[in-house]
Amino acid sequence: MKTYRVGLVGITGYAGMEVTRLLAGHPAMRLVTACSRAEAGKRLGEFYPFLEKLPGADVVISVFEPEKAAASCDIVFLSVPAGTAMGMAVPLIARGVKVVDFSADFRLRDPQLYEEWYSHAHTAHDLLREAVYGIPELYAGQIAGARLVANPGCYPTCAILGLHAALRNDLIESEGIVIDAKSGASGAGRKAAVPTLFCEVTDTFRAYGLPRHRHTPEIEQEVSLLAGREIRLSFNPHLVPMNRGILAAIYTTLKNPRTTTDEAHRAFSKTWEGSRWVRVLPKGALPETRYVRGGMFCDIGVVTDPRTGRLIILSTIDNLCRGAAGQAIANANLMCGLPVETGLTSAPVV
Amino acid sequence: MKTYRVGLVGITGYAGMEVTRLLAGHPAMRLVTACSRAEAGKRLGEFYPFLEKLPGADVVISVFEPEKAAASCDIVFLSVPAGTAMGMAVPLIARGVKVVDFSADFRLRDPQLYEEWYSHAHTAHDLLREAVYGIPELYAGQIAGARLVANPGCYPTCAILGLHAALRNDLIESEGIVIDAKSGASGAGRKAAVPTLFCEVTDTFRAYGLPRHRHTPEIEQEVSLLAGREIRLSFNPHLVPMNRGILAAIYTTLKNPRTTTDEAHRAFSKTWEGSRWVRVLPKGALPETRYVRGGMFCDIGVVTDPRTGRLIILSTIDNLCRGAAGQAIANANLMCGLPVETGLTSAPVV
Amino acid sequence: MKTYRVGLVGITGYAGMEVTRLLAGHPAMRLVTACSRAEAGKRLGEFYPFLEKLPGADVVISVFEPEKAAASCDIVFLSVPAGTAMGMAVPLIARGVKVVDFSADFRLRDPQLYEEWYSHAHTAHDLLREAVYGIPELYAGQIAGARLVANPGCYPTCAILGLHAALRNDLIESEGIVIDAKSGASGAGRKAAVPTLFCEVTDTFRAYGLPRHRHTPEIEQEVSLLAGREIRLSFNPHLVPMNRGILAAIYTTLKNPRTTTDEAHRAFSKTWEGSRWVRVLPKGALPETRYVRGGMFCDIGVVTDPRTGRLIILSTIDNLCRGAAGQAIANANLMCGLPVETGLTSAPVV
Amino acid sequence: MKTYRVGLVGITGYAGMEVTRLLAGHPAMRLVTACSRAEAGKRLGEFYPFLEKLPGADVVISVFEPEKAAASCDIVFLSVPAGTAMGMAVPLIARGVKVVDFSADFRLRDPQLYEEWYSHAHTAHDLLREAVYGIPELYAGQIAGARLVANPGCYPTCAILGLHAALRNDLIESEGIVIDAKSGASGAGRKAAVPTLFCEVTDTFRAYGLPRHRHTPEIEQEVSLLAGREIRLSFNPHLVPMNRGILAAIYTTLKNPRTTTDEAHRAFSKTWEGSRWVRVLPKGALPETRYVRGGMFCDIGVVTDPRTGRLIILSTIDNLCRGAAGQAIANANLMCGLPVETGLTSAPVV
After folding, report:
1. How far is it, in rounded angstroms, from Cα A178 to Cα A261?
2. Under 8 Å CB-to-CB from D328, ≥6 apart: which residues?
3. Is there a contact between C164 and C303 (Cβ–Cβ < 8 Å)?
4. How confident is the model at residue B1 (pLDDT cuts 50, 70, 90)?
5. What residues of chain A lie within 8 A of the CB of D292, using their CB?
6. Residues of A annotated catalytic, as ranges
7. Do D185 and B203 touch (CB under 8 A)?
8. What is the SS3 assignment for D67?
9. Helix (H) or strand (E) holding A93
10. Per the CB < 8 Å rule, is A202 touching B312?
C-alpha cells in the first residue's frame, strides 16, 4: 500500500488532536507536517503526551507556509477557524495538494448565505463552487474526484444521517421539523474560556445559541437537497456534561399519521442496509453516545407516536471522530483512492 | 411558631433523602417518624451520614403502621411507589392525618387513565376525587384546605410551570407541542440496577421511555386544564450524566408567527411578576440546571424564532427539591397554615 | 439581632461566589458592597443568576476604594490573590473595619517563609503579627478579639483538623507524615485556562504541584504548633473530576504499633466530642466528600493497620464552604460577637 | 498469519466487554465462543450495541461447558469471580487449551495466603504451581511457554510497574512504602449495587477497603520478588468519579536522601528504555489517566523531595485495558507465539 503524506494545520483544538490520534493507527497515511503558530518548535509528543511512542510523536510543530506544506504533503487537513481556512486552501490547491477543510468556509454553497451567518466576506468563490460536501455515505463518488472537501459540521452530520431515510422514503412532512441536539463539551473547542471550565459544565445542563446557531443553514441546505424541496427547520443545541458525543432528537410529522414504528423501522433499515457505519438499531432500542465513542458509527433509533402523529428519530455520533477528524480521514481515503474505512476500523471505546 | 410533627414513609430513595435534608433546617416542622421496612432499626444518621449532628439524625427507622404514624404525626409524606401509596393514604386520612403523596396515585383525576398508564387498579376513588394537585403557584388556595395533596411529578412540574404563561397569554397553538426534557440520574431512583450504574451513565447521553413515558398524561391533564381545551403533546425524556436537575425545551407554534422575543418575554415576565420562585430570566438569557440546584426556583427562558414561527420555552428545576421533596414541604406548609416558603429559603448551591 | 454590613472584594472566583450564597441566608449579616474591577456596574444577580430574588442580588458591583468600603461596611472579606490582599487590608484595618482575608498573605507567621514560597515581599509585617489564623475549633477566643483573621487554605483546614486529635493524643510520630490530598476543580479557581476546561478534567485524574505546593508550609506551621515540635511532612495534591470537596488521606506512623483502630477511634471521638462541625465517623466508616457538600462539616475516619504500624486518617471538607467562604463567615461571626454557627446551619446537599 | 480461536467465559463484566472490544480489531485472533449463564441465547451484538457490525457481534452467547470450549477454542479467557475460575481452568488445561485467568485464583503463589485473603479453599494446587504471573515486561519468556497465565490485578499492575525501576536501581528503602491508589468506577465491576449507582459516585470522592484490600498481598508478593527481599507495604484504594483509569501515588523513602529528581529520572528512563508500553514522562511531567485511556501504556512520573527524603512515583494505567483485557491479550499473544503487541497498537482515546 502506498503511504500518503499528510499535513495538519491547527493542532491546538480537539479536532486536530483527534486527527493525530487516528493517523497514528492509519496504515496508509503518515503525518509529516503539523502546524501551529502558538506551539511551533515543540515535538507533537511533547504537546500531546498520549501520542508518545506512537507514529507522529516526533513531528516537530511548525508555522504554516503553503509552499512548504505543498512540498511535503499529498493532502492537508485544515483545522482552523472559519474565515482563516479559505485563505490557506487557495494556495494549497493551486500547488496540487488535496485539502479537507474542517471549517465552514466551503460548506454553504451560497456565498451570500455564508456571509449572512458568518459575518465576513467569502473570498474564494471559485473554490467554493468545486468543493464537495463530505458525507461519504451520500457523496462518495464526488468526494473521490474532489480536490477540496468541505468536511461537514458535527451537528449537521448527525442530523443529516438521521433524516436521510425519512426523507428518501417520503415518510415525513417538510414543515415543522425540530432538532433538539445535545453535544459533549469537546464541541465547544479547546480555547481557554470561563463558560467551558470544568465547574461551569459538570453537573449542569443548558441550551445555547438559540435560535440562530450557525449549523442551521448547513443542515437546511443539505436536507433540502436530499428532500428535493426547501426545508426550514428549528435547530436547538444543548451542552451535556460529557466529553465526546452528540445525540439529536429529531421531531417530525408523519405524512401518514398511522405509520407504525414497524413500518418506519423497516424503511430505515432498508435504506441503510449494507452501510458500513450507519447502524439502525433494533426496533425499540434507542441509541447512546457511548456506543459510538471514538469511532465512525452513526447509531439511529426510530419511534412513531400514534397519539401525536410523529416520527421521532434519535441519531448519535462521536462529534470528534465521525463529526470531524474521522470523517475527514474517510474523505481523504476516498480522495486518495483508498477504501473509505482505511484506518477507521477500531471498535468504539465504551 | 408551632412545631408540626412530620412522618416520612419511604427513606431509601432520593426524594425521601431530600425530605430529611430539608426538614433538618425547617423552623416549624420536626421529623418524628421515618419508615422503611428494609432499614428498620437503624438511626437515620447512620443510614444518611450527611445528616449526623443535625435535627432528625436520631430518629430510629421503623416499619410503617398507620395507627402509630397517625398517633405521632400531624402530617405524613408518602415517598413510596405508585400502587402502594393509596393503600397507606386511606387509613392515615381516616385518622385525621394530612398526607402529601409523592407517587402518581392521586395525580390523574380519571381513574381509568391511571389504570391505563400504570397497569393496576385504582382502589381509592373517593380520595382521588378530593386530592389536590400540588403546584403552589397555581393552586395555593385549594392546597391550604386539602387533606390530601398529590405532589406533582418532576417533569410535569417543570413543563407546567414552563407552559403556563404561554397558555395564559394565548400565545401558542394547542397542537404540535413537543417537550424534549433532560433529567439528572437521581430521577431514575436509588434502586440497584445496571442501567443506572456510574459507568453506564457517565460520559454518555440517551433518551428513554419513548414514546410513552408515564408523565405524559399528567402533563396533558394539567396543561389542558390551564388552557381550557384539550392538549395532546409529545413528551420525550432523556438522561443526563448529572445528579440533580431537569431542563425542558418546549417547542411550540406561535399563534402569531410575528410575535417577537420581546413581546413573549414581556408576557412571561408579567405573568410571573412577584412570584417567589419562578424566575423569568432576562431577555436573551437561557437557564441552567445548576442555578436552581438544591432549591425551589423554576428558571424560565423564552425565545421566538421568526424563521419557523416558534416560541421555544426553556424551563428548569431541581428534580429532587422543587420536583419532589421541596414542593411537598411547600404544600405541607400551606396545609399547616404556614407561609409557603417556610424552611425553603436557602440559595441554590452552584 | 443586630445586622452587620458586609463587604466582599473579589467576586469572580468561586470563593467569592460562595460568600454571596451563604450571606443570602445569613440572619445577621447583609452584603452591602461587592467589588470587582472587571464586573463593576453590573447587578450581582445579573452576574450570578442563581442569586436572583435573594438577598444581595440587587447590590451593584463597584470598584474597590478603601474609604468607601470603610464607610459602608462593618466587616470586609478579601477574596483576592495573595500579594494584593495585604495592600487592601492595611487601609481597611486603619479605618476600623474588621477584615477576613482569604489569601495566604497573613497565614505564614514568618514573613521570610512567605517570601520564599510566594516569591514577593511581605509589606505589612505589623498586621501579620496580629493576624489570627482562623480555625474556629482551635482559636475561637483569639478570633473573637481579632481585627484581622487569616482565613486558612482549603487543604490546610482539612489536614489540620484531620491531624489534630492524633497529635493531641500523642498517637503518632512527627516524622514521615504523608498527606495525599484530592480536590475538586473549584479549588483551581475560576480563571479561563486550558488545563481546567471541562474536557481536560472530566474522566481523568492527575497529581499537580509536586513536590512544592504552597500549602505545605502552612500545614507544617500549624501542625507544628499543635504538636509543640517541628513537623516536616510531604503534601501531595491531586485533581478530582468533581466540583467541590477535598479528601485527604493522611499516612502516619503509630508511636505504639499495636494501637488498635478501636483505641485510635476512641481518642479521636473524645477529642472532638461536642464539636459542632467535626464529625468523627463510626468505627469502620470512611468519609465521602458529598456528605459535607455545601456545609461546614469536617468528616473524619480513622483506621490503624497493624501490618505496617500505621494510623491512617481520612479527612474531608467542602473546599468552598468549610475551606473558604463558610469558615470566613464563621470567623466573622466570632469577630462580631455572634454565635459561630450563625447562618451556617444548612444540611449538606447530597 | 494464523488465526487463533478464542473463547471468553464471563461477558457481563467490564473486563469481558473490553475483551470483545479489543478482539474486534485483533488481526490474528477471532472470538468464537462467549459464555454467560445469564445471557445465553443472545447475540453478542445485541448484548453489546457498540459491537454491532464488528467481528464478534454474531457470536451467540452460550453456557460454559469445558468440552465444547475445548473443542472450539485454542485459548480461553476466564473473566469470572475468584473461586469459580480454578474449577474452569482445570478441565480446559487438561484438554490442551491455553488459559488466561482474570481472577485472583492463580496470582498468589502461596495457597495459604490465598485462603487467608479470599476466605475459601484453593482446589488446584498443581496448576497454581505452574501458573505464570502475566506482566509481559517482566516475565515474557515464562509467559510464552505457559499453559496458564494468572492475569494480574489492575492495581498490582500499576503499582508493580511503578516500583520496578526504583527497586531495580536500589534507590529506595523496603520499609514504609505507601501506595495511595485511585481508580475509576469500572474497577468496581458491573453488578447492580447501590454504592456504584451514578448518583453515589459522581461529584464525590472516597476511600474504600482500608486497610485490607485484597490486592495488598499480590502487590507485596511481586515487589518482594523484584526486590529480592520481603516488602510489606500499605495499599489504600480510592474511588474516582470517572469510568476508566488508575493512578497510583507511591510514597517511598530514598536510600540516599540527596538523590535528585534528575538522578531518579535517569534511572527510571534507563530501566524502561526501549519499552513498548512503559513511558517514563519527561522530567517534571506528571501522568494523567486520560492519556492512557483505552490502551496498554503505563505512564510514570518521578519526583524527589529533598525536604523529606522521599521518592514519589506516579504511575497510571487504563484499568480495563492494561489492567485486565489488554494485558490478557498481550499474554495470549505471547502464549500463541505472536508479537506481544498484536492487536494492541491503537492510540489512547483522549
Report:
1. 19
2. D19, D77, D100, D102, D134, D149, D151
3. no
4. confident
5. 50
6. 154
7. no
8. helix
9. helix A85-94
10. no
Q: Do domains D4-130 and D155-318 have the same CATH topology?
A: no
Residues 6+ positions from A119 with CB-CB distance below 8 Å: none
What is chain D's pLDDT, residue by residue, as a tens digit (350 residues)?
A: 799 999 999 999 999 999 999 999 999 999 999 999 999 999 999 999 999 999 999 999 999 999 999 999 999 999 999 999 999 999 999 999 999 999 999 999 999 999 999 999 999 999 999 999 999 999 999 999 999 999 999 999 999 999 999 999 999 999 999 999 999 999 999 999 999 999 999 999 999 999 999 999 999 999 999 999 999 999 999 999 999 999 999 999 999 999 999 999 999 999 999 999 999 999 999 999 999 999 999 999 999 999 999 999 999 999 999 999 999 999 999 999 999 999 999 999 99
Q: What's the CATH superfamily of C155-319?
A: Dihydrodipicolinate Reductase; domain 2 (3.30.360.10)
Contact D49 A291 (CB under 8 A): yes
From B50's Cα to the closest Cα of chain D, the distance in A is: 13
As a whole number of angstroms, the distance between CA D107 and CA D89 comes to 13
For chain D, list the contacting chains (3+ Cβ pairs, <8 Å): A, B, C
**8 A C-beta contact, residue A277 and residue A327:** no
Q: What is the pTM of this model?
A: 0.98
Say yes or no for a CB contact (<8 Å) between D190 and B198. Answer: no
Residues B264 and B300 sit within 8 Å (Cβ to Cβ)? no
**Gap between the terminal Cα atoms of chain B:** 31
* Dihedral sign (CA D181, D185, D186, D191): positive
Contacts of B285 in chain C (CB under 8 A): 49
How do the domains of chain A map onto residue ranges? Answer: 4-130, 155-319
Enter the ipTM. Answer: 0.97
Q: What contacts B44, CB < 8 A, 6 or more positions away? A: B11, B20, B31, B34, B51, B56, B57, B58, B59, B60, B61
Does D298 participate in catalysis according to the annotation? Answer: no
Contacts of D182 in chain C (CB under 8 A): 182, 205, 238
- B326–chain C nearest CA distance, Å: 13
Chains that touch A (3 or more CB pairs under 8 A): B, C, D
A 10 A CB-CB count for A246 gives 28
Third-level CATH fold of B4-130: Rossmann fold (3.40.50)
Closest by alpha carbon to B330, among B70, B130, B100, B129?
B100
Residue with cell string 465576513: A120
Cα B311 off chain centre by? 24
Nearest CB partner across the interface for D198, out of B185, B191, B192: B185
Residues 6+ away with beta carbon under 8 Å from C340: C136, C140, C276, C330, C333, C334
Cα A73 from chain centre: 23
Residue in A with minimal Cα distance to C187? A199
Which CATH architecture does the domain made up of B155-318 adopt? 2-Layer Sandwich (3.30)
Residue A188's nearest CA partner among A163, A206, A176, A171 is A206
Q: Which CA distances in Å does C17 have to A49, A205, C79, C189?
A: 35, 20, 10, 11
Buried b (16+ CB within 10 A) or exposed e, B107-131: bbbeeebbeebbeeebebeebbeeb
Q: How far is D28 from chain C (nearest CA, A)?
A: 32
Residues 6+ apart with CB under 8 A from C235: C155, C159, C179, C181, C213, C215, C216, C219
Chain D residue whose CA is closest to C232? D308
- Cα distances from D164 to residues A244, C90, D137, D201, in angstroms, run 35, 54, 10, 32
Give residue-wise pLDDT tens across range B119-140: 999 999 999 999 999 999 999 9
Give the pairing type, strands D132-133 and D148-150: parallel
pLDDT reported for residue D1: 72
Residues of A in contact with B310 (CB under 8 A): 178, 211, 234
